[in-house]
Prior knowledge:
Blueprint: E1 3-5, H1 15-19, E2 30-32, H2 40-46, H3 51-60, H4 68-78, H5 81-84, E3 92-94, E4 100-103, H6 113-131, E5 135-140, H7 144-153, E6 159-166, H8 172-179, E7 186-191, H9 195-207, H10 209-214, E8 217-218, H11 225-242, E9 250-255, H12 260-270, E10 275-282, H13 287-294, E11 296-297, H14 321-328, H15 333-344, E12 349-350, H16 355-360, E13 364-368, H17 371-385, H18 391-403, E14 410-414, H19 422-429, E15 451-453, H20 457-468
Helix pairs in contact: 3-4, 3-11, 4-6, 6-7, 6-11, 11-12, 17-18, 17-19
Amino acid sequence: xxxxxxxxxxxxxxxxxxxxxxxxxxxxxxxxxxxxxxxxxxxxxxxxxxxxxxxxxxxxxxxxxxxxxxxxxxxxxxxxxxxxxxxxxxxxxxxxxxxxxxxxxxxxxxxxxxxxxxxxxxxxxxxxxxxxxxxxxxxxxxxxxxxxxxxxxxxxxxxxxxxxxxxxxxxxxxxxxxxxxxxxxxxxxxxxxxxxxxxxxxxxxxxxxxxxxxxxxxxxxxxxxxxxxxxxxxxxxxxxxxxxxxxxxxxxxxxxxxxxxxxxxxxxxxxxxxxxxxxxxxxxxxxxxxxxxxxxxxxxxxxxxxxxxxxxxxxxxxxxxxxxxxxxxxxxxxxxxxxxxxxxxxxxxxxxxxxxxxxxxxxxxxxxxxxxxxxxxxxxxxxxxxxxxxxxxxxxxxxxxxxxxxxxxxxxxxxxxxxxxxxxxxxxxxxxxxxxxxxxxxxxxxxxxxxxxxxxxxxxxxxxxxxxx
Length: 469
Ligand SMILES: *Cc1c(COP(=O)(O)O)cnc(C)c1O
């Protein structure tokens, strides 16, 4: 299988090349030339597989330049009970109102990003070692992505991680999670500024071509194809878990920000998984809800992005959305260039004329929640089902309840655990005790490793030079 760019001006590439890429050189996103098609007989065969076996079957269709035994080994080391807490890896449970929840957040950082990032860590190490290369990941985080990347890459050969975060802006739990890592290849850098300042520094370093080449600087952001492909697997697993036969259909409800998670659902559906609808759930930052309701895509700048109680969805420019629109526009790269030029100029675009296709052919619908909705949903689930869901998952449950049709099976993706968002949980249900995995008891008391630097790119470059000297 070969990969192409949504902007049409990048030479076709192999999986292991795409794995280490961010944006394509032409500014687009990489996608397979076509999606593999899964027939009924294959689906029947896959139904009884374990999670790692299923992951191998799905991913081997995409990672065609990695020898089968090597890929199987990477996957078997990634999806273990030890790392993800259960043998099922992503078990599905049912709330008393019939809504199903697929647990994607039992990895080391208690958010669904571990599902893909843990695979990426092992896959990076494999490809880099094979090619005798090294890679130094430079990233900026306001919480979830940075910790997932650090836990995936800690101790890996050939990789260093330099992760910038805004000093004093993350929660005590998030700080403890990242800064308590003692691995020599993990470098936490707290910048005296805001998250946007951290991102600006990353861009400034990336734009210094000489520095970038000399120090092998790379990224792991949400547009990485390896992350998407690893996420496709759990849609298959969730479907098999939520049904008893392949005659049934299931809808997935996905708390969304950058459109990475639900993009994987779209791909699973295009491969032939019997998905009825893909329900995109947003918070107050509702650019995607607006698109799926009206056809207008109007990204906003950071001044118009709300800070909410589901912070990992506080995104107003959905970086993976271009992958879906490419399919929607029948893979016309020129059309994508035109549309994203409009995005670049701050105008956005309107695809109202194909809204019917978005709904009928691609099965997308959407909804949104407010802070009050999420608190009420957390409280209801706590009272009815005696369990605590996190504010992102609550957004999904709220929207799923609202759009559910008679007889429809909806699986809500659980994108984080309540333990990560204690303040909001307490606001919703009072001072209850919030379960935390045993391994994370006392996390905040562990010694921490972090360098605090002034808000400028030179200070960050100096740390990188010193660490790699
Ligand atoms: C990243 C994240 C999301 C949003 O996922 P996207 O792939 O960006 O749409 C939702 N919930 C949580 C907890 C996250 O960490």
